[in-house]
Write a structure and sequence with these properties.
The structure is a single chain. This protein is of the alpha+beta class and 340 residues long. It has helices at residues 2-9, 24-36, 42-51, 53-56, 69-78, 81-94, 150-159, 177-185, 199-213, 243-246, 290-296, 298-311, 321-338, and strands at residues 104-112, 125-132, 137-144, 167-170, 189-194, 219-227, 230-240, 255-265, 272-281. The chain has 3 domains: 2-79; 99-162 and 297-340, no CATH class; 172-294, no CATH class. A 9-stranded mixed β-sheet has the order 3-2-1-4-5-9-8-7-6, with helices on both faces. Helix 3 (42-51) crosses helix 5 (69-78) and helix 5 crosses helix 13 (321-338). The radius of gyration is 23 Å and the shape is elongated.
Length: 340
């Protein structure tokens, strides 16, 4: 608790000094605690503070009373999201002294659907987050205003992270030379899902995989998962990228991974379904962790699910851009502290 307050005291106050009534650390501390206790808006924060005044007085300055609804809202509008995000990362790292070295960092975007307001011309916010597979925490996040802007947001997020020696995994949005080059510049590896947003590359990879790649000599893992009312067989094939496909692709594109998922369930029409997915990586085909990296990427999807189900992230109606971003980052701070 004291460490959090110490960091809040170092936070830059952007307000006019002559108009300050409530210290910034007081407002921020109240807001964090209230959001941690389930507050979803400015009114909730004030109500929680009114009920917890005796406890709050032990930790922060309440000599001028409690901040109002408008004061809390204005504070979230004016504080820098970049500085707020850095503060949150500092607090998270402080409270994870046994944090191990990262091996895989999945990156993915999530839309805050309720932040969109057509009548006000406000587009939905997209938060692009980096996830730690080894430590089960959010390492950082960057906001963008649309799904298409993930391509520009991901390099900004990469700059916030220490990625040396890690494997960065992304979905098909990461199939971009600028993003891959940024990963490699930081002495990291990449593993990227391939879809039809790269039509020529996808078609070439799919044809080569089905004609030559998916034979038993290239099978690196094959197992069954019998749970949740269905039986799933997953097979992973890894093989070199041929020279003709390298001309269509990206820097240091060494290996194609083709995965087949065969599902049997009473809920599946026809009883059995099968699906192929394709991935590209700079790792050698002999790397024993290739299948693990593909499975590990789903950790960031699980995190997004928890944010929606437990923290109502997708229903958060805040239309001021900075306020919505700062509130979303605070929820992600909560996720790191409470779900692990």
């Amino acid at each position: 608790m004291s460490a959090v307050i110490d960091l809040l005291n170092k936070f830059n106050d952007p307000r006019d000094p002559e108009k300050i009534i409530h210290p910034l650390p007081t407002i921020l501390f109240i807001s964090i605690c209230a959001i941690f206790c389930g507050a979803e808006g400015w009114d909730d924060i004030v109500l929680w503070a009114e009920l917890q005044q005796d406890w709050l007085k032990k930790h922060v300055d309440l000599s001028n009373g409690l901040p109002s609804y408008s004061t809390v809202r204005r504070t979230f509008i004016i504080i820098s999201p970049a500085c707020w995000g850095k503060l949150i990362r500092d607090v998270v790292y402080h409270h994870h002294p046994n944090k191990v070295v990262e091996d895989q960092v999945p990156i993915d975007g999530k839309t805050l659907c309720a932040s969109k307001c057509d009548s006000k011309g406000v587009r939905a916010i997209q938060m692009v987050s980096a996830w730690s597979v080894e430590n089960n925490i959010i390492l950082g996040e960057v906001k963008t205003d649309s799904k298409s802007n993930e391509i520009t947001a991901i390099p900004l997020l990469l700059e916030l992270l220490n990625l040396e020696g890690t494997t960065v995994s992304l979905d098909a949005m990461g199939c971009n030379e600028k993003i891959i080059s940024k990963i490699l510049e930081q002495d990291a590896h990449y593993l990227i899902g391939l879809k039809k947003n790269q039509p020529k590359l996808f078609e070439a990879v799919e044809n080569h995989s089905q004609n030559k790649g998916t034979n038993l000599k290239n099978l690196v893992e094959d197992y069954f998962d019998d749970s949740h009312g269905r039986c799933v067989r997953r097979r992973y094939f890894a093989f070199d990228v041929p020279s003709e496909i390298k001309k269509l692709g990206f820097t240091k594109m060494n290996t194609i991974i083709a995965t087949e998922t065969i599902s049997s369930s009473k809920y599946t029409k026809g009883g059995v379904s099968a699906e192929w997915r394709y991935y590209l990586t700079d790792h050698n085909k002999s790397n024993p962790k290739l299948a693990t990296y593909i499975r590990g990427h789903w950790g960031v999807e699980s995190m997004h699910w928890c944010l929606d189900v437990h923290l109502n992230d997708d229903k958060d109606k805040k239309y001021e851009e900075k306020a919505a971003e700062n509130f979303a980052k605070t929820k992600r701070f909560l996720f790191n502290r409470h779900f692990h």
